[in-house]
Amino acid sequence: MKNKFTLLFWILSLTVMAQKPVVWLISDGGKNINDPDDISAIASYLLMANRFDTRAIVLGSTTHPWNKNTSDQKEWAIETYGKAYKADLPNLNKYIGGYQKEISFMESSIKGMGKSFSPAIDYSLKKYPSIKALFKEVDKSDQIINVLCYGPLTEQAILVSYCIQHKRRDVLNKIRFISHWTSSNFYVGTKENPEHTHNCFADGTACHYMKQRALDGTIKFYECGGIGQYGIVEPAQKGKAYYDLFKSSELGKIFAEGKFKKNRVDDSDSATYWALLGNYGVSLNDIASNGTNYPEVEKKNELAFAKRAKDIRNELLRRSKAASGINPDAISVDVIVPEHGMADPHVWVQNDTVFAVCGHDESWEGKGSFRMDRWEVWSTVDLKIWTHHRNMNPADTYIGNQPNCWAGDITERDGKYYWFFSNRNIDTGVMVADKITGEYKDLLGKPLLPKGIVPVHPYDPEIYIENNEYTICFGSGTYYMATLAKDMKSLETKPKAIKIFKDGKKFLSEDKPTLFKRNDWYYLVFGSRYAMSKKLYGPYEYKGAFLSGGHTSFFDWHGQKYVLQENHDISAFYRGASLKPVFFNADDTILIPKDDTMYPAPGRPFKFINSTMGWQANKGTNLVFIAGKIKGDINNPSAMITSAPWLYTASKLCSKITINIKNNTASKELKIALYSRDKGGNFWSNTEPVNWEKEQWISVPITANDVDFKSYTVDLSKFKHIKDKIMQVGIQPAVGVNSGNWTIEEIIIK
Q: Which of 223, 267, 457, 653 is the most exposed place for a label (fewest CB within 10 A)?
């Protein structure tokens, strides 16, 4: 019996723990009413609403008479929040779960009534439908109702007074009032008069009454003070670019635009629900339940929220992205193998292991246009940690010992694995192995797709499999498709040109096509653009931008579609591969997230985690990589170091360059130069070294003989003739000295 009782106790305890906090939210905000911070705060609450059991959201709870003839706030809320919530709900429940089907909105019955609260009045709730609705909700509930107070306390005071006068303290025992900005020890109010705040000015009697009833133990009243404003809003992320990311969802858009001021969103009243949740720095256990808000407590809670402010914003952003159709649990990796020169990734999935065959850029010195010295076989079982298996060398093919290892594709047929590869843009060959990890041998000893087989260069092959038919797609400008024979070393059909149209006119693509099918649509992707068709051989209709980056390879893993996409890890000639999830709009077009970029854009970070990242000594110093830093000994007053060439960084996306350096010399000056170029003409073939004497050098005052690292920033506006692409950076780390050393921790162009 004792064991059964213990088991029942734990089951009941778990049931209670699993229950969501019940919420009734009262706001003085609305359309043309009050400060719009409440608009952002309610939107952020709705993004988090799966964590609560929301009974109602009341708007316009303010007695100011000038609000009497404003719009019906219930209708406005349904049109604004209700419509946005309904639009975002399917994706929120798909990717996060637990959201209510509907949220109830109502207009406050005290909106614009022109009279403040009076404890002497015997209030009839018939005259106050919104207050009566709360009373009835609490009366019938067997749970605590958390009343979030976003404004003045008139409604709340009327309810408390009614319950006391009608001997319904049982109702009050089931309410927790959680209020914001009805006290302020440091902001607006003072330590002597913390009630000198806007929400108390609006109805001072109601504010005083609620605080007195809390002090005498009649009600539970949690006063947050200013911790929402100064613990969440002010320490959180700044900048329009960050908050624009929210605008991909309907609720996120309301949040971002409700009150965007001082370069950030203000939703300070949200402190009430974050404290109710209790897992972002502050909980109700950290706030007195008797309405007191002592300075030391408010400061402690403010600092606790401040430590988590960025996490709070990122959680809201995660949910806003989910609402727009982006799986927040999908995996993204900026560079799967950093600083390695991995390019042209091509994927094959086998038994839950993802294999990638990639080309390898020969050097980050940028000696010539896309010199690629080998192909490599890699794999992963979690999409995060990648293992190298084998190199495949051009000397093992008809190519010979030439750095011509351009893009290809990997596939399997009848137990054998085939690597179709490009000999630069000249022709296409094929290798074969008994295992996906090799060893691979040239199947033909000559090209499968020789020069002249089609009017364009026959390279960059893609293999598409459907109904056991293997189709090879290749070329540039105009793609061609043909069926591969079962021996995989000949064509069964004659190559056919694939037409792509844009607005009824023929559209010329770039190199490296990739293909996948979804919902009866064929997707033809080339770099950062794509087209769609209902037929494999087209015609295809150009749709626009794909995710930002270079060559692509698609695969499905654990129910999510992913792409490996080429990036500019070190430079345009020493690349990497990014892993990105792929999402779709309701019309089957590809969803492009607002924060999508081609790594490492925007800007160019050098953090020296694994290597020198292409930085080398130019003159007057050596350069070595030690423990995540680069370091050198000076032997010339004009000592200079330079980055890898061909950074290919868009200058219009950048505004400054910052160097974190420890100068262990007597020098009090460093210099920076940026070499930039506009695209056009012989842009890709011109690999001549920079004449740094002709470049503009910006002088930066620095301290001598440093003990610690110091940061120095130069605005790019100081460079008079900066062009479209920043191609290389030159630094003189210690000007005018012949001895000593320097250490650089990071260099960031952003």
A: 653
